[in-house]
Amino acid sequence: MSADSTQPFSRPDGRAANQLRPVSFAPGIAPHAHGSVLARFGDTTVICAAMIEDKVPSWMMQQKVPGGWLSAEYSLLPYSTLDRKQRDISRGKLDGRTVEIQRLIGRALRAVVDLQKLPGMTLWLDCDVLQADGGTRTAAISGAYVATRLAEKKLLAAGKIKTGFFTDSVAAVSAGVCRGQPILDLNYLEDRDAEVDANIVLTGSGRFVEIQSSGEEATFSREELDTLLELARKGAVEISQEQKRVIGE
User: Fold this and answer.
1) Residue 128 structural domain
2) I need a labelling partner for 179 at 20 to 30 A (CA). Which of 6, 68, 90, 140 fits?
């Protein structure tokens, strides 16, 4: 895949190939949650909230599994996309994409949470997309981490838990190849037209939690994959810096 040399590469919003969209996490969007933020990756906007429940899933009780649990729910609100998206409850079932993203968010956070420090408790993460412009799952993961860290601070202050439960931080970002050019943090137009699309989750120590990468009617080389991973690592470091600023670290 090589870009047409007669057509200079430019992104719809004028960003450099290795540049994130403006990223922010505004805390306190959901006052009744233990921790919450309004996560923004450019025009993609997601409410992320964390709450603790004093019980664990029935399968844990039946199997006498020690510790606690963490589960995530994700939804695209009807007005978040150009065409109204029907609510899953109206359809009577979750669509496959929703299930996939919920599981991804759960896996990403469980990778950096010590569930043994949440005995008898379930940590619920709710991620609701207000506006979708590409990268909703990566914004949800990055925002859910901040919301959960804010919840951890609140629970420690209230004496609900005795020690922190995080082992590392986590952030997620997209990367892809569009018109032959590797780029970071795709918006909707880029995601729609990309030959290769990847969503990458990394811990603050630089370890990979998950790499989702696929060619869209195209193939890609090992070298191109390595380039996307390096772009994602750069983006994750920058997202982590903003996460730390909001959390107060």
Assistant:
1) 23-247
2) 140
Three-state SS across 149-181? HHHHHHHHHHCCCCCCCECCCEEEEEEEEECCE
pLDDT tens digits for 59-89? 999 999 999 999 999 998 888 887 787 777 6
Q: How many domains does the structure of the chain reveal?
A: 1
47: three-class secondary structure by DSSP: strand
Q: Kind of pairing, strands 122-131 and 69-76?
A: parallel
Q: CATH number, domain at 42?
A: 3.30.230.70
Is residue 42 included in any domain, yes or no? yes
End-to-end CA distance of the chain: 42
DSSP H helices, the chain, are 58-62, 88-91, 96-110, 136-158, 188-193, 222-247
For residue 120, what pLDDT is reported? 94
The Cα 185–Cα 231 span in angstroms is 9
